[in-house]
Amino acid sequence: MDDNARYQVLRNDEDQYSLWPADLEVPEGWHAVGKEGTKDECSAYVDEVWTDMRPRSLRERMDNAAS
């Protein structure tokens, strides 16, 4: 990753996050979340919002098993 490049934050259907170059088309299966900036800015955003690293489907299964 280039520290001087612009990035955007992506999220997939499993609520997993990734940084992606802002000038490239978003890959299939991923969606822009509206955060764009430097690598450090985007990484800080991901650290703030992605507090549970488990994929959404696993969280749901575990929640259902606990009920």
Automatic annotation (TrEMBL):
SUPFAM superfamilies, per database record: MbtH-like
Domain MbtH-like: 2-48
PANTHER family, A to Z: ENTEROBACTIN BIOSYNTHESIS PROTEIN YBDZ
Protein name: MbtH family NRPS accessory protein
Species this chain originates from: Streptomyces endocoffeicus
Upper classification of the organism: Bacteria, Bacillati, Actinomycetota, Actinomycetes, Kitasatosporales
